[in-house]
Write a structure and sequence with these properties.
This protein is mostly helical and 113 residues long. It contains three helices and no strands. The protein has a domain of 72 residues.
C-alpha cells in the first residue's frame, strides 16, 4: 500500500513581510490606475481612495500626537522605562501618516499624466 502524504507537509505558504505587502499594494494601485485611466468613473474611484488615505493620515497624525503627549507625561512623571516606547509609537504613527500622504501624491501624479 502506498502511504498518503499530507499535502501541507513540505509546502509552506510564502510569508510576506511589510515591505512585500507595500510593494504589492503599489503594484495593484498602478494596475488599477492604468486600467481606469480612460474610464469616466476612474476619477471618482481615485478621489475616494485619496479621501480614505487622507483620513488614515489624519487619524495616524492624531494618534501620534496623543502618543507624544503621553510620552511627555511619562517624562515628567519619571517613568523612564516607557518613555522610549511612547515616542517610538508617536514617530511610527507620523511616518505612517507620511506614507499615506505619499500614496495620495502618487495617485495624483498618475491621474495628471
Amino acid at each position: 500500500m502506498e502511504k498518503k502524504t499530507d499535502e501541507t507537509t513540505g509546502k509552506k505558504e510564502p510569508f510576506w513581510g511589510i515591505g512585500e505587502l507595500v510593494v504589492r499594494l503599489i503594484e495593484l494601485l498602478e494596475a488599477e490606475i492604468d486600467y481606469l485611466r480612460y474610464r469616466a468613473w476612474s476619477l471618482i474611484f481615485l478621489l475616494l481612495l485619496s479621501l480614505i488615505l487622507l483620513t488614515f493620515s489624519v487619524l495616524s497624525l492624531f494618534i501620534g500626537f496623543l502618543y507624544c503627549i503621553w510620552g511627555l507625561y511619562l517624562l515628567f512623571s519619571a517613568v523612564v522605562g516607557k518613555i522610549g516606547g511612547a515616542f517610538l509609537c508617536a514617530s511610527f504613527m507620523v511616518v505612517l501618516a507620511g506614507f499615506f500622504l505619499w500614496m495620495i501624491k502618487e495617485i495624483a501624479n498618475r491621474m495628471l499624466k
